[in-house]
Specification:
single chain, 116 residues, mainly beta, Immunoglobulin-like, 6-stranded mixed beta sheet, 4-stranded antiparallel beta sheet, globular
Length: 116
């Protein structure tokens, strides 16, 4: 991946069999008291990717959450759906590593994994 961002994402719409362009994404980090702090708000590009969520070197260990606005995405296409949002929580233990958090989804299902 050409990005220097420590966290990236890629969203694939399996209903269409193509990247999900224009999908809203929010990245948050939990403070010590468990309160979520917003770090980034972006939308996926034409290739369904966001490669610049955070500046290089800004990652710290902790509990993170990436939320995809699947409801608005499907509403804009007039598609019935079940999940209005998909939130993926993950833990960063090594801030020097790269974390790729992809979402593969349809109106009634979704999956994720730690990519590279």
């Amino acid at each position: 991946m050409s990005s220097t961002s420590p966290i990236t994402t890629h969203a694939l719409d399996t209903r269409l069999g193509q990247p999900a362009a224009g999908l809203g994404v929010v990245l948050e980090r939990a403070d010590a008291d468990g309160t979520w702090k917003m770090l980034a708000v972006q939308s996926t590009n034409e290739g369904g990717r966001i490669g610049d969520l955070l500046p290089a070197g800004s990652l710290t260990a902790g509990h993170y959450r990436m939320t995809f606005d699947t409801g608005r995405y499907f509403q804009s296409q007039g598609v019935e759906h079940f999940y209005p949002r998909v939130s993926i929580e993950f833990e960063i233990r090594d801030p020097a590593s790269h974390y790729h958090v992809p979402l593969v989804f349809s109106p009634f299902a979704y999956s994720t994994y730690r990519g590279s």
